[in-house]
């Protein structure tokens, strides 16, 4: 029996079901007069997507964050969403109230109105969120040009480290453990930054499947080489990796669930993007630049960075 991974399954469905050529994007778009309708759907499954110790309020929020982060990377403000929730029979009124409060808080936090949805019974908690917005255009994954700078929001590697700490597999000092666990339980999508900075981006993509996945996808769609010269991580991550005999590069590039934005931009626009990041309180790192060629490379390494981020059915 041939086993397919997530990307192969999507390609197979797209080839059979769709009547148009499909380009992988963070969101789907369709014309509404002179504007674009923007749609995104994402599903959270309790057994595969919820770490131990996460409160139900934060589980509900996480299901919304996944869609909001994709809108942020496209520079689009989400307006409305539908929530489909399948609940196990073991859930009490208290469980359901906590989920509802989580959705209410997320709706207020991100300014997204929940119009309705669907409820069903299942053996475990499953939440599907479908989000809608309107835009004049979106920032594509494919627009990088030679000599562009590559930038990322946030710090990478913390979420991978945080999950290892939560699972009790690794040791850490108290301060880093707190930061790392918070990145797992309460991710912060860069919505306002993404909307404000969109006009200066030549390409962008949400990083939640892993930094390596994101860079490889953007490089391939842009048909350009990405050279990484600086790592978007702090000394505390390197200390954690050394303490646990781990490879910090694996934590940085292959973790996933960071919900950050990877950006390319013309060099003359980098200073403006940095100003927008500062205004929004968003950490921003210029990690490299775009060249003619193909593949993603880390300076000083001959072999290209491989796509080793998160992929359902293979991880």
UniProtKB/TrEMBL annotation:
<feature type="domain" description="PurM-like C-terminal">
    <location>
        <begin position="148"/>
        <end position="299"/>
    </location>
</feature>
<dbReference type="InterPro" id="IPR006283">
    <property type="entry name" value="ThiL-like"/>
</dbReference>
<feature type="binding site">
    <location>
        <begin position="117"/>
        <end position="118"/>
    </location>
    <ligand>
        <name>ATP</name>
    </ligand>
</feature>
<dbReference type="InterPro" id="IPR016188">
    <property type="entry name" value="PurM-like_N"/>
</dbReference>
<keyword id="KW-0479">Metal-binding</keyword>
<comment type="pathway">
    <text>Cofactor biosynthesis; thiamine diphosphate biosynthesis; thiamine diphosphate from thiamine phosphate: step 1/1.</text>
</comment>
<dbReference type="GO" id="GO:0009228">
    <property type="term" value="P:thiamine biosynthetic process"/>
</dbReference>
<feature type="binding site">
    <location>
        <position position="206"/>
    </location>
    <ligand>
        <name>Mg(2+) 3</name>
    </ligand>
</feature>
<feature type="binding site">
    <location>
        <position position="310"/>
    </location>
    <ligand>
        <name>substrate</name>
    </ligand>
</feature>
<feature type="binding site">
    <location>
        <position position="257"/>
    </location>
    <ligand>
        <name>substrate</name>
    </ligand>
</feature>
<keyword id="KW-0547">Nucleotide-binding</keyword>
<feature type="binding site">
    <location>
        <position position="41"/>
    </location>
    <ligand>
        <name>Mg(2+) 1</name>
    </ligand>
</feature>
<dbReference type="GO" id="GO:0009229">
    <property type="term" value="P:thiamine diphosphate biosynthetic process"/>
</dbReference>
<keyword id="KW-0067">ATP-binding</keyword>
<comment type="function">
    <text>Catalyzes the ATP-dependent phosphorylation of thiamine-monophosphate (TMP) to form thiamine-pyrophosphate (TPP), the active form of vitamin B1.</text>
</comment>
<dbReference type="GO" id="GO:0005524">
    <property type="term" value="F:ATP binding"/>
</dbReference>
<dbReference type="InterPro" id="IPR010918">
    <property type="entry name" value="PurM-like_C_dom"/>
</dbReference>
<feature type="binding site">
    <location>
        <position position="209"/>
    </location>
    <ligand>
        <name>Mg(2+) 5</name>
    </ligand>
</feature>
<feature type="binding site">
    <location>
        <position position="208"/>
    </location>
    <ligand>
        <name>ATP</name>
    </ligand>
</feature>
<dbReference type="InterPro" id="IPR036676">
    <property type="entry name" value="PurM-like_C_sf"/>
</dbReference>
<feature type="binding site">
    <location>
        <position position="49"/>
    </location>
    <ligand>
        <name>substrate</name>
    </ligand>
</feature>
<dbReference type="Pfam" id="PF02769">
    <property type="entry name" value="AIRS_C"/>
</dbReference>
<dbReference type="GO" id="GO:0000287">
    <property type="term" value="F:magnesium ion binding"/>
</dbReference>
<feature type="domain" description="PurM-like N-terminal">
    <location>
        <begin position="31"/>
        <end position="135"/>
    </location>
</feature>
<feature type="binding site">
    <location>
        <position position="42"/>
    </location>
    <ligand>
        <name>Mg(2+) 2</name>
    </ligand>
</feature>
<dbReference type="Pfam" id="PF00586">
    <property type="entry name" value="AIRS"/>
</dbReference>
<protein>
    <recommendedName>
        <fullName>Thiamine-monophosphate kinase</fullName>
        <ecNumber>2.7.4.16</ecNumber>
    </recommendedName>
</protein>
<comment type="similarity">
    <text>Belongs to the thiamine-monophosphate kinase family.</text>
</comment>
<dbReference type="InterPro" id="IPR036921">
    <property type="entry name" value="PurM-like_N_sf"/>
</dbReference>
<feature type="binding site">
    <location>
        <position position="26"/>
    </location>
    <ligand>
        <name>Mg(2+) 3</name>
    </ligand>
</feature>
<feature type="binding site">
    <location>
        <position position="118"/>
    </location>
    <ligand>
        <name>Mg(2+) 1</name>
    </ligand>
</feature>
<feature type="binding site">
    <location>
        <position position="70"/>
    </location>
    <ligand>
        <name>Mg(2+) 4</name>
    </ligand>
</feature>
<feature type="binding site">
    <location>
        <position position="42"/>
    </location>
    <ligand>
        <name>Mg(2+) 1</name>
    </ligand>
</feature>
<feature type="binding site">
    <location>
        <position position="70"/>
    </location>
    <ligand>
        <name>Mg(2+) 3</name>
    </ligand>
</feature>
<dbReference type="GO" id="GO:0009030">
    <property type="term" value="F:thiamine-phosphate kinase activity"/>
</dbReference>
<keyword id="KW-0460">Magnesium</keyword>
<keyword id="KW-0418">Kinase</keyword>
<feature type="binding site">
    <location>
        <position position="141"/>
    </location>
    <ligand>
        <name>ATP</name>
    </ligand>
</feature>
<keyword id="KW-0784">Thiamine biosynthesis</keyword>
<feature type="binding site">
    <location>
        <position position="26"/>
    </location>
    <ligand>
        <name>Mg(2+) 4</name>
    </ligand>
</feature>
<keyword id="KW-0808">Transferase</keyword>
<feature type="binding site">
    <location>
        <position position="70"/>
    </location>
    <ligand>
        <name>Mg(2+) 2</name>
    </ligand>
</feature>
